[in-house]
Amino acid sequence: MEDAVAVLQHELTLGEAADLLSRALPGHRVEILQGRLTVTPPPDGSHALSLTKVCRALERAGIDGSGADWAQGVGLWLPTLPEDFAIPDLSILDEDFRDAHVTKNYYAPNVFRLVVEVTSSNWADDLGPKVECYAQAGIPAYLIADRKHDEVLLYTDPADGKYPDPQRFKRGQSVPLPRAIGVRVELSVDTLLDG
Predict the structure, then answer these.
(1) Within 10 A of 60 (CB to CB), how many other CB atoms are there?
(2) Is 186 helix (H, G, I), strand (E, B) or coil?
(3) The domain that contains 186 carries what CATH number?
(4) What distance in Å separates the CA atoms of residue 162 and residue 183, rounded to the nearest whole number?
(5) pLDDT of residue 12
(6) What are the pLDDT digits (tens) for 89-138?
């Protein structure tokens, strides 16, 4: 109890508030995007299955031995503001990404080849601030399974801190992932949206 009182007696930094929220809300994803604290609820079943199926496709394509690997929930340090960080749903990273540790559980953006987000109730974060933050961080590709608008968006090749307009994919189509990830993979839009 004394610790809680001590915390309440001084003004929290954004990072301290994020740490407190992470402990207080197990299963929720707490991020700081453009200096704003965001909290994402735990994923629903379709969200989780979408990510599982992407991982299976990566394994079938032979990501092992390609110099890349995939991981869910790995922290991405964002150079936008001092305390900014994101925790993408899924990341394809350089195999030795752990050598790029920045702070806490966050890694430097240069080891991320692709980040994947499947929208939840706070879909606006995935479609707005994260597009800007990932582009400014130089993430080569950003894939969004936009369940709110029933489409998949693929942003690639950021320049001067911005992505060009995304490629848009509708149901019935497949999304070819950029070759920069290290393997050739096409993902079904329906699977990405429905799990």
Answers:
(1) 10
(2) strand
(3) 3.90.1570.10
(4) 25
(5) 87
(6) 999 999 999 999 998 889 999 999 999 999 988 898 899 999 999 999 99
